[in-house]
Specification:
Helix content: 40-55%
Strand order of the largest sheet: 7-14-13-9-10-11-12-8
Number of helices: 27
Strand content: 15-25%
Distance between the termini: 77 Å
GO molecular function, one term: kinase activity
CATH architecture of the largest domain: Alpha-Beta Barrel
CATH class of the largest domain: Alpha Beta
InterPro entries: GAF, GAF-like_dom_sf, PEP-util_enz_mobile_dom, PEP-utilizing_PTS_enzyme, PEP_util_C, PEP_util_CS, Phosphohistidine_dom_sf, PTS_EI-like
EC number: 2.7.3.9
Protein name: phosphoenolpyruvate--protein phosphotransferase
Radius of gyration: 31 Å
Structural class: alpha/beta
Subcellular location: Cytoplasm
Number of strands: 22
CATH topology of the largest domain: TIM Barrel
Length: about 750
């Protein structure tokens, strides 16, 4: 029986030798097409490379007119070669001239050839060119020949990606790999960042392509597949990690794909054709991604990321890398590009080198975005396809104002954005000047502008932003970035540092808010829930596990010795929860008193109003606590029945809708009625237009990210509050002409030249 794999193996061995020889790029390409033609007994072998202007240019040929090299060209979608590039699928024809897409290029002299095999040159599913073999006789090329040509195309793709062919490109032209490309999505945090791409889960570059022993490589592949399957089973079965809903569906998909016999067979075939196990994974995944990119079914297209993640996991298994590897050398102007990521993962990157964040998924209220906002970096989200199009080190611009990114931008665009950055810097200088001015409306009403924080890295921004204090200190971030529960001493040290940095300004600490989408992998009691956002989280969890709350309360009481302690409870649903928490606090106070610890001069207990049930017991709530803080992100989520992390709904409902503003007005009025201070912390506070609305509704204390304080204060100092209150009297219950409230507020500001 004939060994059909021997031909491809011989070809790959020859290619490996060619890649190691010190040859000029054109000579290397000429030798490659010559060897392919000889190995496959083809009379023609040609390579077309895709340029940035969507033209496929002939870069090398054996058998066609050599004078046609760098002159013969086809547009994307034109002719057989253009069809292959556009569809990212091979064409195997016994009589090419009968195919409806056939286009004759007279300069090549190819009219005498009948059989035709063309395959796309793919990298990460992206077409970079087309590789073709032809014969005069009418024949259908065998499957192993198709496989051999695809494998060879993979080698050429790496040559293109490394820039080897750039020297062959005519002046004024560029290869498609370097083509500028822009994406438009959503703005998750304002600002502009110019820098270089750092892929959060960097595409693993396979440098060892050709195997010495196929049987040994098959063993390595089988062992890594076994480890991969075990790790997925382990994640699905472990009780300490809350993989429910979408998380669990992804893992179930991983398990299905990892056990798919067709996928494994294609991997093994690639190895038997001479590739290493790593190169086989790269090739099969690139082929699969190219096919899925051109599918119209949205569900199948969404599965691409599952396949990519699974292939990356397998590559890491094969190459012995940990799942948390990040770029070895981070540029000083890093812009992280990710499909999605957790808040703790972002904090792994050194803040001084971050210039922006790009997410394919996510929502404005997801926790990684909240952390990025606290760090003061621009964020653009819903950038579908950005990860595939980006390479580590690519120049990139993130426009957090327009919700756009520009990969490999043209010099004039880069210059325009550099000027935009300079303009923003000048505007920031204006905001810095505003720090010295009172935080008052145009008609003299004081409004406290506080900042949100959660880590020591946030503290210097208190003075830089000119905040009146910290309206929300998220204590759970310390837990999220740690590998084990922070000890009481570590908690106490952080809380004391926060108070020291505040220099007498008020600080409101929120008790640990974990559960839901804030999973601590080391927390053994996490349960599986169908709807974690409505489940066992925040105060519900800590009252059931009082040891957590007692440890934190004790650390806070010690850290605040001789100073005021402002403490608030997250996700309160009924007043009984406040009474239970107060009992735990009183017990800790008595315990520390017995041992003569230095206690706070005063202790004020507040509740976060995030659950709609509290809207129907506002007066009772105001009497039960010393202050109330409105968590607008969750309150809006629950009032409007919209998952804050659902990308399909991220931009569907407006936070300035009349029903939600009416609810916020009720809360502010109840605070005045009961003489209970009310603050609002959340997305609403950080945008000038929504902050203006809050002030008009009666809020005199709002908390936001440090970067938002300058723009909000610029609005505040130009705001005639009496006129805005009259505006709400006229429009809150019945908006004029049925217009959306946002449009009415924008018109109000425009008429009075209020900067938004």
């Amino acid at each position: 029986m004939r060994d059909t794999a021997s031909g491809p193996r011989v070809l790959l061995k020859r290619l490996r030798e060619l890649m190691q020889e010190p040859l000029e790029p054109q000579e290397r390409l000429d030798r490659i097409v010559r060897d392919i033609a000889a190995n496959m007994v083809a009379e023609v072998c040609s390579l077309y490379v895709l340029r940035a202007d969507s033209v496929l240019e002939l870069y090398a040929t054996e058998g066609l007119n050599p004078k046609a090299v760098h002159l013969a060209q086809l547009r994307l979608g034109e002719g057989l070669v253009g069809t292959i590039a556009a569809s990212a699928r091979p064409l195997n024809l016994s009589n090419a001239q009968e195919h409806p897409a056939f286009a004759y290029l007279p300069e090549t002299g190819e009219e005498i050839y009948n059989s035709f095999l063309g395959v796309p040159v793919l990298r990460a599913g992206r077409t970079l060119g087309v590789l073709v073999v032809q014969n005069k006789t009418m024949r259908h090329y065998r499957d192993d020949e198709v496989e051999a040509l695809e494998t060879t195309a993979m080698v050429i793709a790496e040559m293109i990606a490394t820039g080897d062919l750039a020297r062959l490109t005519r002046p004024g032209l560029e290869l498609d790999l370097r083509r500028p490309v822009s994406f438009t999505g959503l703005s998750f945090n304002e600002g502009v960042g110019l820098g270089h791409v750092v892929l959060h889960e960097p595409r693993i570059v396979v440098t060892n392509l050709f195997n010495e022993d196929s049987d040994e490589e098959i063993k390595r592949l089988d062992a890594s597949l076994g480890s991969l399957r075990l790790s997925i089973d382990d994640m699905l079965e472990r009780r300490e990690v809350a993989f429910e809903g979408e998380h669990r569906q992804v893992l179930e998909a991983y398990r299905m794909f990892a056990n798919d016999s067709g996928w494994v067979r294609r991997l093994e075939e690639a190895v038997r054709n001479g590739l290493t196990a790593e190169a086989a994974v790269e090739k099969v995944q690139s082929d699969m991604r190219a096919r899925m990119l051109h599918m119209t079914d949205p569900y199948l297209r969404e599965r691409m990321s599952d396949f990519d993640d699974l292939a990356n996991r397998l590559l890491r298994q094969l190459m012995g890398r940990g799942p948390d590897d990040v770029a070895v050398s981070l540029p000083k102007d890093a812009i992280i590009v990710a499909r999605s990521m957790g808040a703790a993962e972002l904090l792994d990157y050194p803040r001084d080198k971050l210039r922006g964040l790009v997410l394919e998924d996510g929502a404005a209220t997801s926790h990684v975005v909240i952390v990025a906002r606290a760090m003061g970096i621009p964020v653009a989200g819903q950038m579908k396809g950005a990860v595939s199009m980006a390479e580590n080190g690519d120049a990139i611009i993130v426009d957090g104002e327009e919700g756009a990114i520009h990969l490999r931008p043209q010099p004039d665009l880069e210059a325009a954005y550099a000027e935009k950055v300079r303009f923003r810097a000048r505007r920031q200088e204006v905001y810095r000047e505003l720090r010295k001015k009172p935080s008052m409306t145009k008609d003299g009403v004081q409004v406290d502008l506080l900042m949100n924080a959660g880590l020591a890295v946030d503290l210097p921004q208190l003075a830089e932003a000119g905040a009146a204090g910290i309206g929300l200190f998220r204590t759970e971030l310390q837990f999220m970035v740690a590998s084990t529960f922070p000890r009481a001493e570590a908690q106490e040290r952080l809380y004391r540092d926060v108070l020291d940095a505040a220099r007498g300004k008020p600080v409101t600490f929120r008790t640990i808010d974990i559960g839901g989408d804030k999973v601590l992998p080391y927390f053994k009691d996490t349960i599986q829930e169908e709807n974690p956002a409505l489940g066992w989280r925040a105060i519900r969890l800590t009252l059931d596990r009082p040891g957590l709350l007692r440890t934190q309360i004790r650390a806070l009481l010690k850290a605040c010795g001789g100073r005021e302690l402002k403490l608030m409870l997250p996700m309160v649903t009924e007043l009984g929860e406040i009474a239970q928490a107060r009992e735990i606090i009183d017990r800790e106070v008595r315990h520390l008193s017995r041992f003569a610890h230095h206690l706070p001069t005063s202790l004020k207990l507040g509740a976060m109003l995030e659950v709609p049930s509290l809207l129907f017991q506002l007066d009772e709530l105001m009497k039960a606590v010393d202050f109330v803080s409105v968590g607008s992100n969750d309150l809006f989520q629950f009032v409007m029945a919209v998952d804050r992390g659902n990308t399909q709904l991220a931009d569907r409902f407006d936070v300035l809708s009349t029903p939600f503003l009416r609810a916020l007005k009720q809360i502010a009025d109840a605070g005045v009625r009961n003489q209970t201070p009310v603050t609002l912390c959340g997305e609403l506070a950080g945008k000038p237009i929504s902050a203006m609305a809050l002030i008009g509704l009666g809020y005199r204390s709002i908390s936001m990210s440090p970067a938002s304080i300058g723009p909000v204060k610029a609005m505040l100092t130009e705001l005639p509050l009496a006129e805005l209150e009259a505006f709400f009297d006229d429009n809150l219950m019945a908006p004029a002409q049925g217009l959306p409230m946002r449009a009415l507020l924008q018109a109000f500001a425009d008429d009075r030249s209020i900067p938004l």
